[in-house]
Every structure is written in C-alpha cells, then in structure tokens.
Amino acid sequence: MQRLAPEVAVEVAKRLLTCDWSWTTADLDKALEAAGLTALEPLEGMSIRIEHAALPGVPGYVANLTADEKTVLDISVTLTELIDEADADALAALDAAYKEYEAALEEEFDEPDDRPDEKRAMWDQCDRVLELLNLDIGVVLAVVNKASRRRQEGDGYPALFGAPPSPCTGPTWPAIEELMADCPVSHSERAATGSGDGEWEDLASGLGRVLASLADTDVVFFLLDDVLVLAVSRDYRDVWLLGTGPEDQAEPVELSVVQKGTLAAIGFRPPLRDEAERSARDNWWFRLGLPADPHLLEAAGHMLVAAARQVYGADRPSAIVWVSMGLSADARRVLDSLGLTKSELERD
Question: 15-22, long-range: CB within 8 Å, 24+ apart, which pairs?
Fold first, then answer.
C-alpha cells in the first residue's frame, strides 16, 4: 500500500497546527506550502483538491465554509492510497496503517482528547482540532478550524468543538518562515472552470434556499437517468444531505473508489454501519444542525451540486429530476424556480 510514513504525517500535522494564517482562502496557499501540499485547482469553491508531494495522485481536500466569506473549515490530507473496502486484505492493511499513525501522533501530542470510536481520534490544539480518521477507503489527517466546525455542525458535533479554545501550553515549532523555506512548493497549473458554471452556481444557491425552506419531515429526491442519487430532508432541527451508494437497501448505486473519495472530499461522510439513524447507516451523508446561517445552507447547496456533477455525472442542471415526499409549499415554490426537471409523479 502506498502511504506517507508516520513521521511525515506527524510533520504535516505540526506544520498545519502552527501555521499562522487567517483560515480564509486569501492566504490558504501559505498554509499549504508550509505543510508541503499542492493545490490541484484554483483556491476557491467549496472543496479544493490537494496532494502531498510524497504521495502524488492521492488527493486530499480543503473544505471551505462559505462561498461568500471564503472561510476554510479544514485541511484534510489523505495519508494512504484509496482502497476497495470489499478487499479484506487491503482493509486489514488500512487498519494497521491507521494504528501506526495514531501511535505516532500520540507520541508527539500525547493521548487523544476524544476518541469517538476505534477509527477516529481527536486532539485539542488551541483554536484547532487535529483529527485522524479511518474512512475504510483511506486514512485521513485533518486540521480543523474549531470555530467554523462548531458553527457548521451545531449541537450535534462532539463537545470538543464546542469548548472554548484551550491555552496553548504545548511545545512550539519553527516559525512559519522557516517551514516555508524547508518546503518550497509550486502550485500545479490551475484547472479551467469550464463552461456553464454560472448555471451551476445559480443552482447551488437555489438549493441552499430549498434547504432553508424545508419544513419538518419534508423530503426531496434527486434522480439522474431514473436512478436516485441524492436526497435532502429535514428532521426536526436537522437537515440531512444524502448520497446514494452500494449500502442503500432500496436502490443501491455502485461507486468506484474514486467516486467514494470524491464524496469524502466534498464533505459527505461514509455510511456508519452501527448508526441507529438509518439515513447515516445506508447512505453517504452530511447533517447540518438548525438554526443555520444562510451561508452554511448555501455551502450545503454547493455540496449537492458538486456531488451531482463530480460523482454521479450530471452534465447540466436540467438533467436532474426531482420528486418529493410531503413537500411544503414554500420549498416547492423554490424548487419550481431552479430549472430542474420535475418528475411526472409530482402533481401541482
């Protein structure tokens, strides 16, 4: 298995934790260069692919909080190549790699401050949180902007993110100027945005308005070529974004390793086998607690558009067909205005 050595992962973590920057895309390149990371596309949008020089072709990602504020939510570095989770040997190797990374990080940063399960560990680092995650398709190291994650996840995220910043009493690392001198990185040529992006931008904003207008128990399904690929719903104080995968019991959709990695890069979380909430057990998912800032809802709209285009292959907004279940009048009016195709099952 191709992967970064544990000591390299520790060094990346140290550099991202000590980099003095604004957590906006305005100086994101400063943090990436300090950690030896390269952006694979323009430093804008809701999710920016990145890679480490020692593991080319294996993308991590930067998640932005909002399109308007350009606030960065986290920088996530993929430490291993992506695997097929159906391959038992590869899965065992991934589990072993995760344990090695966890041991190396524990030696450097002491015991994790939170370990929600055996495949996730978190260290409280002042205004940031260091996370190690085994996604069953790869191991990811993330440095998270604590304040932004708390805003995004609401009351449902681990208490570690709701705590005030802890005192910075740990060891200090070299100044950012020294780190940047050690790791000179030139960004790869920025990808062209392509044609028709204006339509997609409008759709993302419109979907954010749909999410804002959902009433309790509203559900909207989105289909491509008669296959259900995405859904949104509201359950009391939570808005759910769901991406269909092979675990879906009603209409499973096979996803390649690359597609799963792309969903993770966009911000969706993989199905949780032991989760009581079926939405999170059978689908790739993202949950947003309410009330939510309008910018967060728009960001969620961008996540839906990115999944439709990059994972499920939508080539134009009108290719997406929607059908609802008990949809409120306000949400229906917004959906009708977006230029998506209404299913024949819908009745005005």
Answer: 15/173, 15/179, 15/183, 16/75, 16/143, 17/125, 17/128, 17/130, 17/143, 17/173, 18/172, 18/173, 18/174, 18/176, 18/179, 19/176, 19/179, 20/176, 21/176
Burial of 98 (0-12, 13-18, 19+ CB in 10 A): buried
Q: What is the pLDDT of residues 125-145, one digit of tens each?
A: 877 889 999 988 899 999 988
Give pLDDT, residue 194. 27
Q: Which residue type occupies 82?
A: L
**Do 163 and 222 belong to one domain?**
no
Structural domain that includes position 125? 6-182
Is 193 strand, coil or helix? coil
Q: Which of 148, 182, 216 is the last residue of a domain?
A: 182
Same-domain pairing of 29 and 108: yes
**Torsion angle in degrees (nearest 10) through CA of 81, 82, 83, 84:** -160
Contact 79, 139 (CB under 8 A): yes
How would you classify residue 27: left for phi > 0, otherwise alpha for psi between -120 and 50, otherwise beta?
alpha
**pTM beyond 0.85:** no
Measured between alpha carbons, how far is 227 from 242 in angstroms, rounded to an integer? 14
- The terminus-to-terminus CA distance of the chain in angstroms comes to 54
